[in-house]
Amino acid sequence: MSNNTPQDIERYADIFKALSNPSRLRIFLRLFSCCGGPGRICALGEQEANCCVGDLSQDLTISPSTVSHHMKELRRAELINMQRRGQKAECTLNRELLAELSKFFQG
What we know:
Blueprint: H1 6-19, H2 22-35, E1 41-44, H3 53-60, H4 64-76, E2 80-85, E3 88-93, H5 95-106
Antiparallel strand pairs: 1-3, 2-3
Helix pairs in contact: 2-4, 3-4
């Protein structure tokens, strides 16, 4: 059994809750795929050919506003980081959190 505190368990539950939505999980996996892995920058903007909100919404057959909502939830769970650069948003997967989750599953 691991040495997770009750606060750790609550935090992990929030993370898993964010990923429990099928659309959010698909978005997260799509970002993982297009960004080439944790910590790599993915530009999200109308000018980008891959991984823009419009592309994600078409791939997943959901509206861009719904994709934005799901991105906000992924960011709230600290699975992704986003930073605005002009009209684009740069998105990175939180590699520290992904490593922490890996350790969680390894016990």
